Amino acid sequence: MSECAGQATVFVVDDDEAMRDSIQLLLESVHLSARTFACALDFMKHFEQKQEGCLLLDVRMPGMNGMELLELLKSGGIDLPVVMITGHGDVPLAVRALKHGAFDFIQKPFNAQELLDRVHAALDLDRKNNRRNSEVAQYRALFQALTDREMEVVDLVVAGNSSKMIAKALGISPKTVDIHRANIMRKLNIRSVAEMVQLRLTLLDA
Amino acid sequence: MSECAGQATVFVVDDDEAMRDSIQLLLESVHLSARTFACALDFMKHFEQKQEGCLLLDVRMPGMNGMELLELLKSGGIDLPVVMITGHGDVPLAVRALKHGAFDFIQKPFNAQELLDRVHAALDLDRKNNRRNSEVAQYRALFQALTDREMEVVDLVVAGNSSKMIAKALGISPKTVDIHRANIMRKLNIRSVAEMVQLRLTLLDA
DNA sequence: AAGGCATTAGGTATTTCTACCTATTGGAAT
DNA sequence: ATTCCAATAGGTAGAAATACCTAATGCCTT
Fold first, then answer.
1. CB contact under 8 A, B198 and A195
2. pLDDT tens for residues B78-89?
3. What is the pTM of this model?
4. Residue B168: CB less than 7 A from any atom in strand C
């Protein structure tokens, strides 16, 4: 056991109190921190984007069901890995969940070790996502220091234009383009066009 | 019906002859070209990577089963969209198939329209993949015209190095680096470092 | 009103890149 | 053997980019 999960939290949403408690006990028995919720709305009220971990989500619930919450989270850009749990073997439901971005889909009754394996896999994925996302967030912060005009210049440079071509495209002097370029390089803390292109592309397809 | 599927083929692998025939009739009734196979090996013998379409694959078969074929195809880099078909609702099987890259997973007995909808969606995905892949293949062909030394220079340029730095890294004269760069630009048919970076990155994460 | 910043632009100097030229060495193919 | 090409490197020239400087205009905030 190399890492004891840090601040990662396993969120559990299930209307069945006995199930919530037993899952919580199971998770805490392997030193995972768990927070349980009786319904989708409770979870949404307490969850914040920056929290790390994964979500164990029962499909069948009164009020908003698990599938609806899953689709709401994914359409809201929250990429917390979701392990769906269902009491009856419904293949179309499983297919729909996975195609909507669920990380996994398991049936009750489940083996304890099986659940833990999938939780650990989900937590691994979340850690990987977070590493990637924080990297992207840093780049995004750099670009936010640029003015609109500077962003125009960035995109024209990335598209392969010379300062002279950019000047023509923007209707300004090549000299001014060079000034913008110098400010861009300083603000992004880079020293080559290659780095500018890579930074920009990283943000575009993130 | 805007497009009549061109040369796209729906491959059907199922050990049940009656099922093969009925699926083939259904597909041909909407002007889709179909080829059927009684077992996984037959399909593998006749399939070539360049063929476009999708694969309807029965899970339960004597000899190599559908799941094994799916995993074989995906590990072999063949990204033909695969619609798995199974006679009994087995959720873990569906989850496994989708996590291994199956495009969809449906149960028998299925509604005819439902099957056609999924086939059309699979064909759409394949067309999209093919457009993307042929684009990438063109870029790859360009890079294959480069020598090993030129590829080293490409990677050092993309990493943001100047000719002088590259020369130091390779232990050669900056002049020679410039010669390599000129040859690279000519062979790749580009006119800026920005284009070189984009071309290289497109191949790296493809 | 004063300061800060974005945008504009010029000057000058240096470095870097690109485009031509020639030329040698060594290996591979004809 | 001769031809072809990769890799090496030099010269010269021009284009492009970078690094400094100053400076005007306009907008926003204090």
1. no
2. 999 999 999 887
3. 0.89
4. no
What is the domain-level CATH number for residue B45? 3.40.50.2300
- Are B163 and B178 spatial neighbours (Cβ–Cβ below 8 Å)? yes
How many domains, in total, are found in chain B?
2
State residue B6's pLDDT score: 58
**Rounded Cα gap, residues A198 and A195, in angstroms:** 5
Mean pLDDT, chain A, whole residue set = 95
Q: Are residues B192 and B113 in the same domain?
A: no
**A176 beta carbon to strand C: under 7 Å:** yes
Query: Quick check: is A88 in a domain?
Result: yes
B192 CB closer than 7 A to any strand C atom: yes
Distance CA A80, CA A88 (A): 24
Token pair of A150 as six digits = 């500077």
Does the pLDDT of residue A116 top 90, yes or no?
Answer: yes
- Predicted confidence (pLDDT) at residue B19 exceeds the cutoff of 70: yes
Within a 10 A sphere around the Cβ of B48, how many other Cβ atoms?
6
Q: Which amino acid is at A119?
A: V
Q: B165-191 pLDDT, tens per residue?
A: 999 999 999 999 999 999 999 999 999
Interface of A with B (CB under 8 A): 86, 89-92, 94-95, 98-99, 104-107, 157-162, 190-198, 201
For an interface test with A, which of B82, B86, B88, B98 has the most A Cβ atoms less than 10 Å from its Cβ? Answer: B98
Query: Which residues touch A77 (CB under 8 Å, ≥6 apart)?
Result: none
* Pairing outcome for strands B82-86 and A82-86: unpaired
Start-to-end CA span in chain A (Å): 32
